Structure to design on (495 residues):
């Protein structure tokens, strides 16, 4: 006997009904669910609150779960008294239902697996006090690092290396030491360091005494000179090791260095390998996320199971987090033999998701439907759109837009925009212009999507407070729902 198909009850407003049904007609068969749609007596679904929906909810028999619009405010606890069915918020925009259901499809059920270790280096560690080292190490681990690498300064011996390593080990962290100086390395491994970066002909003789794994590098990266001899000596001494042929910066042999990684893999198919990807992210004028992802993809395909990264230069300050997200994406792509596309939106920080457009007809209809005194902002088709009661203004120039608004209000004898509202509109318009400049999706009172760098929006504007909306609506002679939610006459946003 097969499992019964899921039956989902969708709740929406009048304005979105037609579009929602079109999307569901196409999506339901492909994903594999049945559905019902309940259209509540409100023009725009985004203005509903969860208590307001709960009092009007009417899920038919056979429903397995309920989906409400993602923009609805309020706690889902409001539904506990009216239904035992699971209630979820959908996406902020119904046109993203494909993505919403795709993220929960079977091929992504195990998404997040990875097999690449992230080694995060604290550069110039001898120059930092122990408190600063521990704080930075914990931050890096929280961002996804598996091991903390203490980077030493060439030409000197760090007398406090043992204390620093012991402190990190006592905190439960895996530690490596980045040095060629045998005395420095010996003190670090005695204190608990379990990996040494790096070993070549200059210090390989001491490696057998350390009793831990090491990273073997060539004396001369461009020719791999000295690497074979170092590997032979490590093998003879029974020292566990990884091989790093050394990634070269662009303009200094980058392409050839990638070829050396491939050559080492062909020669040593079972060897553990490491790549220092910071040699590219730190030394190239480009945001680091894309560079990290491409190098991780290379590592995943070649079987390089550890990467060393740093966060020194300002454009690479989030490299560890990028690597943590990227290693899961490339693991998914390689193991599932699928494109790494529409899977990990948090790595798209500059452009973010494809902007959603409402179109001229919808915005004009919205202007006709609005009765309250607040303004709604949209960014689409290369312009900022300001929509209010009987008003739809649009311009690329925010100053021209505000000037036109002043003229329109003066012509209709409406109240001028007060200072607080003007400041709020200026803040929101600035976000809208940024969205247009970068091709981002703009939503009023919501943070712009910067992927994993997104910060929560701090709402202080007129539309951020339901009580303030109700107060202004009453002042304009528009009735409000007793719950604080607007009635259908007050519908003001689209979803």
């Amino acid at each position: 006997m097969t499992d019964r198909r899921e039956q989902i009850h969708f709740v929406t407003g009048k304005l979105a009904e037609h579009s929602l049904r079109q999307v569901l007609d196409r999506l339901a068969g492909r994903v594999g669910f049945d559905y019902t749609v309940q259209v509540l007596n409100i023009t725009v679904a985004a203005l509903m609150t969860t208590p307001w929906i709960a009092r009007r909810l009417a899920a038919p028999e056979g429903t397995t779960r309920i989906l409400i619009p993602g923009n609805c405010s309020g706690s889902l606890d409001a539904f506990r008294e009216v239904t035992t069915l699971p209630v979820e918020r959908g996406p902020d925009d119904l046109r993203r239902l494909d993505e919403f259901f795709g993220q929960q499809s079977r091929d992504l059920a195990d998404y997040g697996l990875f097999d690449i270790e992230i080694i995060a280096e604290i550069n110039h560690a001898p120059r930092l006090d122990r408190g600063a080292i521990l704080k930075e190490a914990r931050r890096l681990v929280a961002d996804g690092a598996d091991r903390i690498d203490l980077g030493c300064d060439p030409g000197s011996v760090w007398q406090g290396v043992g204390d620093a390593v012991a402190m990190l080990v006592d905190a439960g962290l895996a530690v490596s030491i980045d040095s060629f100086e045998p005395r420095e390395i010996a003190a670090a491994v005695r204190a608990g360091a379990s990996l040494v970066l790096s070993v070549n002909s200059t210090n390989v003789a001491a490696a057998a005494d350390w009793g831990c794994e090491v990273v073997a590098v060539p004396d001369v990266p461009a020719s791999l000179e000295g690497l074979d001899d170092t590997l032979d000596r490590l093998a003879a001494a029974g020292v566990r090791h990884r091989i790093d042929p050394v990634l070269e910066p662009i303009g200094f042999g980058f392409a050839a260095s990638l070829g050396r990684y491939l050559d080492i893999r062909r020669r040593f198919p079972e060897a553990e390998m490491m790549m220092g990807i910071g040699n590219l992210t730190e030394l190239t004028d480009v945001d680091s996320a894309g560079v990290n992802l491409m190098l991780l993809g290379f590592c995943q395909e070649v079987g390089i199971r550890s990467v060393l990264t740093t966060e020194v230069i300002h454009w690479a300050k989030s490299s560890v987090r990028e690597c943590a997200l990227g290693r899961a994406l490339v693991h998914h792509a390689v193991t599932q033999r699928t494109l790494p596309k529409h899977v990990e939106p948090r790595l798209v920080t500059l452009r973010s998701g494809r902007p959603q457009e409402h179109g001229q007809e919808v915005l004009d209809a919205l202007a006709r439907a609005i009765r309250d005194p607040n303004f709604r902002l949209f960014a689409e088709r290369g312009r900022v759109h300001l929509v209010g009661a009987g008003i739809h203004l649009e311009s690329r120039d925010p100053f021209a837009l505000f000037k036109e608004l002043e003229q329109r209000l003066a012509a209709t004898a409406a109240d001028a925009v007060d200072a607080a509202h003007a400041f709020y509109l200026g803040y929101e318009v600035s976000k809208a212009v940024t969205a247009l400049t970068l091709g981002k999706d703009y939503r009023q009172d919501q943070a712009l999507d910067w992927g994993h760098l997104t910060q929560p929006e701090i709402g202080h504007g007129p539309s951020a407070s339901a009580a303030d909306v109700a107060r202004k609506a009453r002042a304009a002679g528009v009735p409000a729902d007793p719950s604080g939610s607007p009635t259908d006459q007050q519908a003001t946003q689209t979803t």
Notes: The mean pLDDT is 87. The chain has three domains: 6-108, 117-347, 360-464.
